[in-house]
Each structure stands twice: as structure tokens, then as C-alpha cells.
Write a structure and sequence with these properties.
76 residues, Formate_DH_dsu, globular, mainly alpha, 80% helix
């Protein structure tokens, strides 16, 4: 795993932890919105590819957020 991917995993998990106040689905929506707004396209692509291939280091909210990102991408 590249250092950049490791850093992205750490960042998305930190964002998820900070936004999770009990409702995992609502937190995942907020995380996905944050990533959509602030992350570069290449960063989003890397985290989506990681979740598709493995995803084992993503927490539950992060996994839900990445799934929402994939849905948004497919809808575009």
C-alpha cells in the first residue's frame, strides 16, 4: 500500500469518527459530502478503488461514505 493511500485511509477514518454522533447513515452522508467537496478527483478515485479491492482498514462509516461516493459518480 502506498503512503498516499495509507494517508487517505487515515483521513477518511478521522473524518468519519469526527462526524459520527450515533446515526451511521447520516454521518456517512456528511463524510461523502465533505469528500466530494474537498478531495481531488484522484483522491476520491483511490479511496473508491481501495474499497473495491480490499477496504479492510476503513471503518463502518467510511465504507458507507465510499459507497455513497460510488453512487454519486454513477448518477453523474
Amino acid at each position: 500500500m502506498s503512503d498516499q493511500l495509507h494517508h487517505l485511509i487515515k483521513m477518511i477514518n478521522q473524518i468519519s469518527t469526527n462526524l459520527d454522533h450515533g446515526d451511521k447513515h447520516k454521518a456517512a452522508e456528511a463524510v461523502a459530502a465533505h469528500i466530494k467537496k474537498f478531495w481531488a478527483r484522484s483522491m476520491k478515485q483511490q479511496i473508491i478503488e481501495y474499497e473495491d479491492i480490499d477496504g479492510s482498514e476503513l471503518n463502518q462509516v467510511s465504507r458507507l461514505a465510499v459507497a455513497q461516493l460510488k453512487e454519486l459518480r454513477q448518477a453523474s
